[in-house]
Sequence to fold (593 residues):
Amino acid sequence: MSKLESLNQWVEAVARSTQPERVHWCDGSEAENDALIDLMLQRGDLIELNPRTHPDCYLHRSNPSDVARVEHLTFICTKSKDDAGPNNHWMDPAEAHAKVDALFAGCMKGRTLYVIPYCMGPIDSPLSRCGVEITDSPYVVANMRIMTRMGAAALERIEREGTFVKGQHSTGELDPHKRFIMHFPEELTIKSIGSGYGGNALLGKKCHALRIASYQARTEGWLAEHMLIVGIQNPKGETHYIAAAFPSACGKTNLAMLIPPESYLKAGWKVWTVGDDICWMTPGADGRLWAINPEAGFFGVAPGTSAKTNPNALAMLNHDTIFTNVAVTADGDPWWEGLPDGVPVKDWQGRDYLATNGPAAHPNSRFTVSAKQCPSWSPHAEDPQGVPISAIIFGGRREHLVPLVFEARDWTHGVLVGSAMGSETTAAATGAVGVLRRDSMAMKPFCGYNFADYFAHWLSLEKSGAKLPKIFHVNWFRKGDDGKFLWPGFGDNMRVLEWILGRSNGSEGAEETPIGNIPRAQDLNLDGLDLTRSKLEALLHVDLESWAAEYESIGEYLASYGARMPQKLLDEHRRIAALLAEDVAESDAVGTP
Ligand code: SAT
Ligand code: MN
Fold:
């Protein structure tokens, strides 16, 4: 029970409809967590991993039909369909409530209803927001305890503030035909049923911190973004913060925890992790954007994580970690593709591992771990005022066309670059992998309202007194004619970050092109990097003709939002498309004998 009557009433109403055997209010304590872990071990929801190499680490195997976010079953339920926009699946709120309420009716019979009060962001930060998730999944409770500030302190703040986001979740029957992730931004409410997985079930994460928060942020003048936050400390000891948006499973965690190349380490550079997935940014009194990471842990993709690609992540995963859908070795160690050592004996479904059954670990298998376990966790990550952002990066997974990095000319151009972002799809959502789709600001699955209004909101941040960060676009995934990645990525991405920060303080050079400013070979620090001249040229090459075609496709995409699309963005698009057309005509003329 709480001191807040509206909270008690809501919990009672949900209990009346779902009919649990008992109701448990989570306090977030160690003892409570221990009891939950014991319960899950008994029920087989968790399997203990090797206690010698991985103390307090557990494996959870989700239902094989429930391994990723389900965008086709995720709805934004605003009164007006246009407010949700073509970027969302929409359902009328009354219809959506009726549909899920019918599924919730009696769904917790014989189960425990857990009440999870949580705070997104440092518990004492004015930028943080609270919510309460009701769930019948102890796995969700254990994950929320790692991913958010959960329990007594959050409840106190909720009682003080009197408002909170209501999240109602049940694993239901885990039947994909009875699975819905419904958002009611106008009611600050989420109802999710039929899935126990990640972003479908840990409601603080994508449902609250992005879909509901983006909607709130628009009305209140801030931004809730699908971005990592990383601090780069230069040899002078100054730290500058970068926020970077990439679609799910495109390396946000790796970039947030990057270890710089040897030559940088020797010179005294350091990298600090503030967040790996979500960033809330608010204009400060000084005009700069100040950012907090609303999360308290990482729900990272396991496959591909190794001592080579992300030593910081690997170092934090050997104790107090929940693994979901990874494989195990004969010694009971967690295993996934990309680890150089170890041999899987059981695959992610618990079957004897057979290469013919596909990968041992599910491609979207995950680890859940407290951010405090990260060796590069920033001492400023919990600062109530947040950290000031010096540069914003947008990035996607593009095999062709898009250069390693370019800089937008100004804020409007940057918003266009973000809105035009395209990326090849990954295993983080169900559906085909490797298909190019527009994923504006990496928010396609997460923006709780019409993208046209969202772009207008981004544009509106540019006003007198604002000291907005510069905006960049990167692509670590460009491939050469041989089908291999041109750029080594990982730690070497530091070289691109250095140029980005140099552009932000005016100390680095660039070449202007119609799509933005590109570093010349001499502008990048390539010390100690074995990269051929031809590869570098290919990485930085802007093919005008292909870009003209890309801008045509971007134009069609923007037009698909109809009259709500801000004219300023359309004008910016037209301006660049014209520049490209001019340059193509000129180069054609030059090429004419
Ligand atoms: O499943 S989550 O949404 O939590 C992870 C992701 O797709 O980014
Ligand atoms: Mn994400």
User: Anything to note?
Assistant: The chain has three domains: 5-48+65-221, 225-293+380-579, 297-373. The radius of gyration is 24 Å.
